[in-house]
Model the fold of this input.
Amino acid sequence: MQIGSKVYWRKSSGEVIFITPEIESEHVRETTKEDDMGFYPQLKGFNPAQVEVLQLTHHQYYEDFQRAKSYVVNPDTGKLEFVYIDGGGSETPTQQVPLTDQVTELKTRQDSTEAALLALMDVTKA
Done:
């Protein structure tokens, strides 16, 4: 069984408090928020009502975490946002949706554009 990481974050600010490790084993079970808050020292002392958890799939955003300078959870959307290391640009870094999500959206757009172009070419040939 493969269990993805859980991202624990402050509801008020989106600050990431702790990310649980991914687990791949036949002898594991899903844990609850209460289980994790009682087990991981990084989560002890936090009020569970002020902490939210985002469950990721196995290896979800793996490359984004490797490339990102920092990350937070947008408290309004409950989604991760990353700040990536800029290759020498002078702009102030801004938070953005994960690159993996951006690539998926661009592929979908590209497929739609190609389909529209093919349809247009068929119409102009007739």
